[in-house]
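Kindly draft a sequence, keeping tokens residue-aligned:
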Amino acid sequence: MTSTATLDRSSTGASSTTQVYRIFIKATPQAIWDAITKPEWTQRFGYGLRDEYELRPGGKYRGHANQGMIEMGMGGVIVDGEVIEADPPHKLVMTWRMAIDPTLAQEGWTRLTYEIVEGRGGVSRLSVIHDLAGRPGHAAMVAGDQQGPGASGGWLWILSDLKTLLESGAQMTPANRLHPPHE
């Protein structure tokens, strides 16, 4: 485990069973929770999906395509899953899979956990624990291994964009290839 970077992946490579990412964000746990669970926020970072949650055990999770994806022919539900546990604003556990890709959808669901811990000085720690056992395609995708240097992709990029948005009010990369910039 490397601890020299703000973001920390404890298991390296696409073959990892579990990928763990930790990031410190100058924001309250509630602000981080809202950014993860409210569509008006989820559309502003990462891939810009309109995430919709039923925040109760057994509730549905759906990540809907953004306008840029629709224009590229990728409409509908991009990712889906089911909420296992919701403890606002501290913990969200859910199943998760890439629904739009038939090969990845056939791999089945992974288990995704968000943990938010309030620290000192208005800084909170967000941990993303993604159990990818037996899901090599998903593991490569969320590790960002399928994208080249400087390209968007994977949890590191998504969480870096989330941190930038919450701390500055702007996206890290305002004109990325999968969705139009937000003003």
Notes: Residues 16 and 139 are 7 Å apart (CA to CA). The domain at 18-168 is CATH 3.30.530.20 (Alpha-D-Glucose-1,6-Bisphosphate; Chain A, domain 4).
